[in-house]
Automatic annotation (TrEMBL):
Molecular-function GO terms, alphabetical: methyltransferase activity
Domain Methyltransferase FkbM, residue spans: 89-223
Ranges of Low complexity composition bias in the record: 262-277
Annotated region (Disordered), positions in chain: 258-293
Keyword entries, A-Z: Methyltransferase, Transferase
Keyword Manganese belongs to the record: no
Pfam families documented for this protein: Methyltransf_21 (PF05050)
DNA-binding in keyword set: no
GO BP terms, alphabetized: methylation
Protein name listed in UniProt: FkbM family methyltransferase
Length: 293
Protein backbone atom coordinates (compact mmCIF):
# COMPACT_ATOMS: atom_id res chain seq x y z
CA UNK A 1 0.00 0.00 0.00
CA UNK A 2 1.36 3.42 -0.94
CA UNK A 3 1.51 6.50 1.27
CA UNK A 4 -1.74 7.89 -0.11
CA UNK A 5 -3.54 4.60 0.48
CA UNK A 6 -2.20 4.43 4.03
CA UNK A 7 -3.37 8.00 4.70
CA UNK A 8 -6.84 7.25 3.34
CA UNK A 9 -7.06 4.15 5.52
CA UNK A 10 -5.99 6.10 8.61
CA UNK A 11 -8.50 8.86 7.81
CA UNK A 12 -11.33 6.32 7.52
CA UNK A 13 -10.30 4.71 10.80
CA UNK A 14 -10.27 8.07 12.60
CA UNK A 15 -13.64 9.01 11.08
CA UNK A 16 -15.24 5.76 12.22
CA UNK A 17 -13.69 6.09 15.66
CA UNK A 18 -14.98 9.66 15.95
CA UNK A 19 -18.51 8.42 15.22
CA UNK A 20 -18.16 6.01 18.14
CA UNK A 21 -16.55 8.13 20.86
CA UNK A 22 -16.31 11.70 19.56
CA UNK A 23 -13.32 13.67 18.28
CA UNK A 24 -11.61 14.16 21.63
CA UNK A 25 -11.96 10.49 22.53
CA UNK A 26 -10.80 9.39 19.08
CA UNK A 27 -7.67 11.57 19.23
CA UNK A 28 -6.79 10.32 22.70
CA UNK A 29 -7.40 6.74 21.55
CA UNK A 30 -5.02 7.13 18.60
CA UNK A 31 -2.32 8.79 20.70
CA UNK A 32 -2.45 6.05 23.32
CA UNK A 33 -2.51 3.43 20.60
CA UNK A 34 0.61 4.87 18.98
CA UNK A 35 2.69 5.36 22.12
CA UNK A 36 1.71 2.52 24.44
CA UNK A 37 4.27 -0.18 25.22
CA UNK A 38 3.83 -3.62 23.70
CA UNK A 39 1.47 -5.71 25.84
CA UNK A 40 0.40 -2.70 27.92
CA UNK A 41 -3.32 -2.11 28.33
CA UNK A 42 -4.18 1.52 27.71
CA UNK A 43 -7.50 3.07 28.74
CA UNK A 44 -9.47 6.05 27.50
CA UNK A 45 -12.00 7.53 29.95
CA UNK A 46 -15.24 8.94 28.60
CA UNK A 47 -18.18 10.79 30.17
CA UNK A 48 -21.33 10.00 28.17
CA UNK A 49 -24.26 12.32 28.65
CA UNK A 50 -26.56 9.54 29.86
CA UNK A 51 -24.32 8.57 32.82
CA UNK A 52 -23.25 10.44 35.94
CA UNK A 53 -19.90 8.65 36.04
CA UNK A 54 -17.03 8.14 33.62
CA UNK A 55 -16.48 4.78 31.99
CA UNK A 56 -13.25 3.36 30.58
CA UNK A 57 -12.56 1.90 27.14
CA UNK A 58 -9.59 -0.30 26.22
CA UNK A 59 -7.59 1.02 23.28
CA UNK A 60 -7.42 -1.40 20.34
CA UNK A 61 -10.54 -3.36 21.33
CA UNK A 62 -14.19 -3.41 20.30
CA UNK A 63 -15.07 -1.24 23.34
CA UNK A 64 -15.51 1.87 21.18
CA UNK A 65 -18.19 0.14 19.07
CA UNK A 66 -19.95 -1.16 22.18
CA UNK A 67 -19.81 2.33 23.69
CA UNK A 68 -21.44 3.84 20.61
CA UNK A 69 -24.16 1.21 20.42
CA UNK A 70 -25.12 1.34 24.09
CA UNK A 71 -24.28 4.84 25.33
CA UNK A 72 -24.49 6.99 22.18
CA UNK A 73 -27.23 5.27 20.13
CA UNK A 74 -28.80 4.10 23.42
CA UNK A 75 -30.31 0.94 22.01
CA UNK A 76 -31.76 0.00 25.42
CA UNK A 77 -33.56 3.34 25.76
CA UNK A 78 -36.56 1.58 24.29
CA UNK A 79 -37.10 0.03 27.75
CA UNK A 80 -37.68 3.38 29.46
CA UNK A 81 -41.39 2.67 30.06
CA UNK A 82 -40.54 -0.18 32.46
CA UNK A 83 -39.92 0.18 36.20
CA UNK A 84 -37.85 -2.85 37.23
CA UNK A 85 -36.42 -3.43 40.68
CA UNK A 86 -34.44 -6.57 39.81
CA UNK A 87 -32.39 -6.71 36.59
CA UNK A 88 -30.13 -9.50 35.32
CA UNK A 89 -27.61 -8.63 32.58
CA UNK A 90 -26.46 -11.83 30.85
CA UNK A 91 -23.40 -11.02 28.76
CA UNK A 92 -22.50 -7.82 30.62
CA UNK A 93 -19.29 -7.27 28.61
CA UNK A 94 -17.53 -4.22 30.13
CA UNK A 95 -20.60 -2.88 31.91
CA UNK A 96 -21.94 -0.18 29.59
CA UNK A 97 -25.44 -1.69 29.38
CA UNK A 98 -25.53 -2.37 33.11
CA UNK A 99 -24.54 1.25 33.83
CA UNK A 100 -27.14 2.56 31.38
CA UNK A 101 -29.91 0.49 32.98
CA UNK A 102 -28.88 1.46 36.52
CA UNK A 103 -29.05 5.13 35.57
CA UNK A 104 -32.38 4.75 33.77
CA UNK A 105 -33.90 2.78 36.67
CA UNK A 106 -32.59 4.34 39.92
CA UNK A 107 -34.57 1.94 42.15
CA UNK A 108 -33.14 -1.15 40.50
CA UNK A 109 -30.51 -3.61 41.65
CA UNK A 110 -28.64 -5.56 39.01
CA UNK A 111 -26.81 -8.85 38.62
CA UNK A 112 -24.18 -8.67 35.85
CA UNK A 113 -22.84 -11.95 34.40
CA UNK A 114 -19.75 -12.00 32.17
CA UNK A 115 -17.47 -14.97 31.29
CA UNK A 116 -14.41 -13.16 29.88
CA UNK A 117 -11.86 -12.32 32.61
CA UNK A 118 -10.67 -9.22 30.73
CA UNK A 119 -14.17 -7.94 30.14
CA UNK A 120 -15.23 -8.72 33.71
CA UNK A 121 -12.26 -6.80 35.16
CA UNK A 122 -13.23 -3.64 33.27
CA UNK A 123 -16.91 -4.25 34.00
CA UNK A 124 -16.13 -4.27 37.73
CA UNK A 125 -14.24 -1.01 37.36
CA UNK A 126 -16.95 0.68 35.29
CA UNK A 127 -19.69 -0.32 37.75
CA UNK A 128 -17.81 0.43 40.98
CA UNK A 129 -19.65 3.74 41.44
CA UNK A 130 -22.97 1.91 41.85
CA UNK A 131 -21.82 0.13 45.01
CA UNK A 132 -24.08 -2.54 46.40
CA UNK A 133 -26.68 -2.00 43.69
CA UNK A 134 -24.55 -4.31 41.51
CA UNK A 135 -23.44 -7.90 41.91
CA UNK A 136 -20.91 -9.11 39.31
CA UNK A 137 -20.59 -12.84 38.58
CA UNK A 138 -17.63 -13.91 36.47
CA UNK A 139 -19.18 -16.93 34.77
CA UNK A 140 -20.99 -18.04 31.63
CA UNK A 141 -24.76 -18.42 31.53
CA UNK A 142 -25.64 -22.03 30.79
CA UNK A 143 -28.40 -24.57 31.36
CA UNK A 144 -26.54 -26.64 33.97
CA UNK A 145 -23.56 -26.50 36.31
CA UNK A 146 -20.33 -27.34 34.47
CA UNK A 147 -17.04 -25.80 33.32
CA UNK A 148 -16.97 -23.64 30.23
CA UNK A 149 -14.26 -22.74 27.72
CA UNK A 150 -14.14 -19.04 26.82
CA UNK A 151 -13.53 -18.29 23.13
CA UNK A 152 -12.40 -14.70 22.61
CA UNK A 153 -10.34 -12.86 20.02
CA UNK A 154 -8.48 -9.56 20.33
CA UNK A 155 -10.56 -6.87 18.68
CA UNK A 156 -13.79 -8.87 19.09
CA UNK A 157 -14.28 -8.49 22.83
CA UNK A 158 -17.98 -7.83 22.32
CA UNK A 159 -18.37 -11.25 20.66
CA UNK A 160 -17.10 -13.57 23.42
CA UNK A 161 -18.51 -17.08 23.17
CA UNK A 162 -18.45 -20.03 25.54
CA UNK A 163 -18.80 -23.77 25.10
CA UNK A 164 -18.95 -26.65 27.50
CA UNK A 165 -15.54 -28.06 28.37
CA UNK A 166 -14.89 -31.46 26.84
CA UNK A 167 -13.17 -34.51 28.32
CA UNK A 168 -9.68 -33.57 29.50
CA UNK A 169 -10.36 -29.82 29.32
CA UNK A 170 -10.16 -27.86 32.55
CA UNK A 171 -12.31 -25.03 31.23
CA UNK A 172 -11.87 -21.33 31.93
CA UNK A 173 -14.90 -20.37 34.02
CA UNK A 174 -17.82 -21.94 35.82
CA UNK A 175 -21.29 -22.02 34.32
CA UNK A 176 -24.15 -20.34 36.16
CA UNK A 177 -27.82 -21.22 35.74
CA UNK A 178 -30.43 -18.48 35.97
CA UNK A 179 -32.46 -20.70 38.27
CA UNK A 180 -29.54 -20.79 40.75
CA UNK A 181 -29.22 -17.03 41.23
CA UNK A 182 -31.56 -17.16 44.22
CA UNK A 183 -33.90 -14.48 42.85
CA UNK A 184 -37.64 -14.85 43.47
CA UNK A 185 -38.30 -12.74 40.39
CA UNK A 186 -36.45 -11.02 37.53
CA UNK A 187 -38.26 -7.88 36.46
CA UNK A 188 -35.98 -7.35 33.45
CA UNK A 189 -33.72 -9.93 31.87
CA UNK A 190 -31.22 -8.72 29.27
CA UNK A 191 -29.58 -11.48 27.19
CA UNK A 192 -26.74 -11.01 24.70
CA UNK A 193 -24.63 -14.15 25.01
CA UNK A 194 -23.47 -14.81 21.45
CA UNK A 195 -25.31 -18.05 20.73
CA UNK A 196 -25.57 -19.57 24.21
CA UNK A 197 -29.24 -18.56 24.25
CA UNK A 198 -29.88 -21.73 22.22
CA UNK A 199 -28.73 -23.72 25.27
CA UNK A 200 -30.49 -21.81 28.04
CA UNK A 201 -33.84 -21.67 26.22
CA UNK A 202 -33.70 -25.33 25.18
CA UNK A 203 -33.00 -27.01 28.54
CA UNK A 204 -34.36 -26.27 32.02
CA UNK A 205 -36.20 -23.10 31.00
CA UNK A 206 -39.21 -23.98 33.13
CA UNK A 207 -37.13 -23.40 36.29
CA UNK A 208 -36.53 -19.68 35.65
CA UNK A 209 -38.62 -18.26 32.78
CA UNK A 210 -41.86 -17.99 34.85
CA UNK A 211 -39.98 -15.54 37.12
CA UNK A 212 -39.22 -13.10 34.27
CA UNK A 213 -41.45 -10.07 33.74
CA UNK A 214 -39.72 -8.48 30.74
CA UNK A 215 -36.99 -9.64 28.39
CA UNK A 216 -34.59 -7.90 26.00
CA UNK A 217 -32.61 -10.35 23.89
CA UNK A 218 -30.36 -10.43 20.85
CA UNK A 219 -30.74 -13.71 18.97
CA UNK A 220 -27.80 -15.18 17.04
CA UNK A 221 -28.96 -17.45 14.26
CA UNK A 222 -31.73 -19.94 13.42
CA UNK A 223 -30.95 -22.43 16.23
CA UNK A 224 -31.25 -19.68 18.83
CA UNK A 225 -34.46 -18.37 17.31
CA UNK A 226 -36.00 -21.85 17.24
CA UNK A 227 -35.15 -22.59 20.89
CA UNK A 228 -36.41 -19.16 21.94
CA UNK A 229 -39.73 -19.45 20.15
CA UNK A 230 -40.34 -22.98 21.44
CA UNK A 231 -39.70 -21.87 25.04
CA UNK A 232 -42.03 -18.86 24.71
CA UNK A 233 -44.86 -20.70 22.96
CA UNK A 234 -46.89 -21.05 26.16
CA UNK A 235 -46.48 -17.43 27.32
CA UNK A 236 -48.49 -14.26 26.97
CA UNK A 237 -46.33 -11.32 25.93
CA UNK A 238 -46.22 -7.98 24.18
CA UNK A 239 -43.48 -8.18 21.60
CA UNK A 240 -41.47 -5.37 20.05
CA UNK A 241 -38.63 -5.51 17.54
CA UNK A 242 -36.09 -2.74 18.00
CA UNK A 243 -32.93 -2.91 15.91
CA UNK A 244 -31.19 -6.18 16.81
CA UNK A 245 -33.26 -6.58 19.97
CA UNK A 246 -36.40 -8.58 20.61
CA UNK A 247 -38.29 -6.99 23.51
CA UNK A 248 -40.95 -8.91 25.45
CA UNK A 249 -43.12 -7.04 27.95
CA UNK A 250 -45.83 -8.36 30.31
CA UNK A 251 -44.33 -11.83 30.07
CA UNK A 252 -46.29 -14.49 31.95
CA UNK A 253 -47.30 -18.13 31.50
CA UNK A 254 -50.58 -18.48 29.66
CA UNK A 255 -53.19 -20.33 31.75
CA UNK A 256 -54.30 -23.67 30.40
CA UNK A 257 -57.68 -23.40 28.72
CA UNK A 258 -60.19 -25.99 29.89
CA UNK A 259 -62.13 -27.69 27.07
CA UNK A 260 -65.66 -26.36 26.67
CA UNK A 261 -68.66 -28.62 27.33
CA UNK A 262 -69.14 -30.91 24.40
CA UNK A 263 -65.85 -29.94 22.86
CA UNK A 264 -63.61 -32.69 24.27
CA UNK A 265 -62.69 -33.78 20.78
CA UNK A 266 -61.19 -30.37 20.09
CA UNK A 267 -58.28 -30.92 22.50
CA UNK A 268 -55.63 -30.79 19.81
CA UNK A 269 -57.22 -27.74 18.21
CA UNK A 270 -57.35 -25.91 21.56
CA UNK A 271 -53.71 -26.76 22.10
CA UNK A 272 -52.90 -25.27 18.71
CA UNK A 273 -54.81 -22.11 19.62
CA UNK A 274 -52.80 -21.72 22.83
CA UNK A 275 -49.54 -22.19 20.97
CA UNK A 276 -50.64 -19.65 18.40
CA UNK A 277 -51.52 -17.03 21.02
CA UNK A 278 -47.90 -16.11 21.54
CA UNK A 279 -48.04 -12.38 21.23
CA UNK A 280 -50.64 -9.84 22.31
CA UNK A 281 -48.99 -7.09 20.37
CA UNK A 282 -46.10 -6.74 17.93
CA UNK A 283 -44.49 -3.38 17.43
CA UNK A 284 -41.52 -2.23 15.36
CA UNK A 285 -39.05 0.55 16.09
CA UNK A 286 -36.57 1.52 13.42
CA UNK A 287 -34.87 4.10 15.59
CA UNK A 288 -34.28 4.09 19.34
CA UNK A 289 -34.90 7.35 21.13
CA UNK A 290 -32.97 8.78 24.08
CA UNK A 291 -34.84 8.22 27.34
CA UNK A 292 -33.36 11.32 28.95
CA UNK A 293 -33.02 9.58 32.34
Amino acid sequence: MGIQGELRQQARYLRDLTRCIGLRGALEWRLRQQFRSRGEESLVRMQPGCLRHEVALRVGTSDAMTYRQVLVAQEYGVLADLDPEVIVDCGANVGYTSAFLLEMFPRARLVAIEPSPGNAALCRRNLASYGDRVRLIEAGVWSRSCRLVVEARRGDEWGVKVREAGPGEAGDVDAVCLADLGLPRIDLLKVDIEGSEAVIFRDGVEAWLPKVGALAIELHGPDCEAAFEAALAGYHQRRQLSGELVILRDLRPAPARAPEFGQAGRGSAASGERAGAISDQVESADRISCSGK
